[in-house]
Amino acid sequence: MASVLLAVFVNGKICKNPNMVSANDFFFPGLNKPGNTSNAQGSKVTPVNVNQLPGLNTLGISLVRIDYAPYGLNPPHTHPRATEVLVVVEGTLFVGFVTSNPADPNVKNKLFTKTLYPGDVFVFPEGLIHFQFNVGKTDAFVFAGLSSQNPGVITIANAVFGSDPPINLDVLTKAFQVEANVIKYLQAPFM
Predict the structure, then answer these.
(1) Which UniProt keywords apply (predicted)?
(2) Is 77 marked as a binding-site residue?
């Protein structure tokens, strides 16, 4: 009688045959090395989630290292499947998140901000738009834990102004209550 191996699909990933698992499935080297911040935002996110570290599958955790050049920005983004807990290792960061669509139509979205220093910890609740900005004149870096092995990330400007094909101009001018030339200006860097 031949044995049949069935793949187990959990949380969007195929679990490895337990007989084939090795220590390397639970190991990720290199978070001691700074990321390359030579880009328009002046930041680099180095993720360690289930895509880089298969042993995280089903564990509900992941982490990132984020490096910032002086005045570097991790632009407004959201993690649809995770809360983020960030700890500053080096530098001074201005961070914040904004609430979304309060139940009371008379209440506006609220921005929560804080300036963080080495050793400070800040929490970004799941699904809320948040950012980090290096307000210092030196490099900065942080580690952040996320409450999902696959937290996902949606960078707001990239999604709204950099889609292919572009979102209809009438939709964006009405949504942002601005003239078409403003939307075209915001889309230009993504073309």
Answers:
(1) Apoplast, Disulfide bond, Manganese, Metal-binding, Secreted
(2) yes
